[in-house]
């Protein structure tokens, strides 16, 4: 069987198995994204154009982070505990086909939230989007990095540790990461940490692609994300290949 057919059959199998959860996740992500665009504005007594633009461009990044680093690892960890991952290892197919099919499914559920929140922000708040041709590469690299890392640590860590880490990540990305506000607002220690971790780079490439005339993106952010993405996927495929 060709690799394309392997991906197709795994995609159909996984999609039907998880379709109920996936619809719920897509709705939840849409609510979260709209909550960032609308709700966070209430925290600011008189938000300026720059603050609104940070929230509008940060919402898609938060959607991709919570999908790949929170929802996916929680689902994967539960599947590992239930023995479903061991069952997948018995399939006579390339392990990369499993990863590609699952990645496509998780990518699809982020589209409604990103699309609806961005359109809503554009027409209601007029934040000043100036979309660059790099928007698709930026969103795709951010999504793949989140998904790759999420798969990696959910395969390596036990279920309890995975659950704790995902809660820490969602809390940290919303409150202590320069996604919805400038990096300069954080203390120097957190700034140093974020220059190594991928969350800041995710926000930068998406922000710079949605508002290219306001934000410039250093190419090093693409390199940092590519390194984290490769690390996550290589780790995941190695673990799936174990007997």
Automatic annotation (TrEMBL):
What is its subcellular localisation? Membrane
Instruction: Describe its membrane topology.
Output: Multi-pass membrane protein
Enumerate the transmembrane spans.
21-40, 52-72, 104-125, 131-157, 164-181, 219-240
Matches recorded under Pfam families: ABC2_membrane (PF01061)
> Superkingdom of the source?
Bacteria
Query: Could you tell me which InterPro entries the record lists for this protein?
Result: ABC2_TM, ABC_2_transport, Nod_factor_ABC_transporter
Q: Per the database record, which ranges form the ABC-2 type transporter transmembrane domain?
A: 13-209
Keywords from UniProt, A to Z, are: Membrane, Transmembrane, Transmembrane helix
One GO cellular component term? ATP-binding cassette (ABC) transporter complex
Q: Which GO MF terms are attached to this record?
A: ABC-type transporter activity
Q: What is this protein called?
A: ABC-2 type transport system permease protein
């Amino acid at each position: 069987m060709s690799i394309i057919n392997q991906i197709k059959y795994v995609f159909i199998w996984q999609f039907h198995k998880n379709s109920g959860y996936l619809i719920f996740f897509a709705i939840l992500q849409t609510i979260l994204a709209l909550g960032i665009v609308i709700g966070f504005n209430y925290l600011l007594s008189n938000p300026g154009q720059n603050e609104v633009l940070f929230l509008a461009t940060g919402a898609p990044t938060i959607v991709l982070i919570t999908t790949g680093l929170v929802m996916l690892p929680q689902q994967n960890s539960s599947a590992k505990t239930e023995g479903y991952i061991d069952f997948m290892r018995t399939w006579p197919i390339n392990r990369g086909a499993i990863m590609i099919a699952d990645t496509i499914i998780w990518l699809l559920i982020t589209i409604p939230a990103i699309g609806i929140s961005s359109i809503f922000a554009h027409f209601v708040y007029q934040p000043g989007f100036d979309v660059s041709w790099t928007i698709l590469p930026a969103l795709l690299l951010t999504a793949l990095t989140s998904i790759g890392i999420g798969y990696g640590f959910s395969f390596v860590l036990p279920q309890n540790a995975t659950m704790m880490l995902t809660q820490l990540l969602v809390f940290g990305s919303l409150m202590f990461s320069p996604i919805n506000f400038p990096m300069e607002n954080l203390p120097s220690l957190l700034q140093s940490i974020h220059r190594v971790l991928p969350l800041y780079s995710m926000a930068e490439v998406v922000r710079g692609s949605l508002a290219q005339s306001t934000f410039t993106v250093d190419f090093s952010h693409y390199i940092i994300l590519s390194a984290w993405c490769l690390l996550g996927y290589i780790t995941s495929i190695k673990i799936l290949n174990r007997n």
